[in-house]
Amino acid sequence: MRNLKLLLSYDGTDFHGWQTQPNGRTVQETLERAIADLTGEDRVRVTASGRTDAGVHAVGQVANFHTASHLSPHTMMRGVNARLPPDAIVRQADEVPSEFNANRDALRKLYRYVLHLGDVPDLFLRRYCYHLRKQLDVEAMRRAGAALVGTHDFRCFETEWPNRKSSVRTITHLALSRFGDFLWLDVEADGFLYNMVRAIVGTLINVGRGFWPEVHVAEILANGDRARAGPTAPPHGLFLMRVSYE
Question: Active site residue: 14, 53, 94, 153, which one?
Answer without folding.
Answer: 53
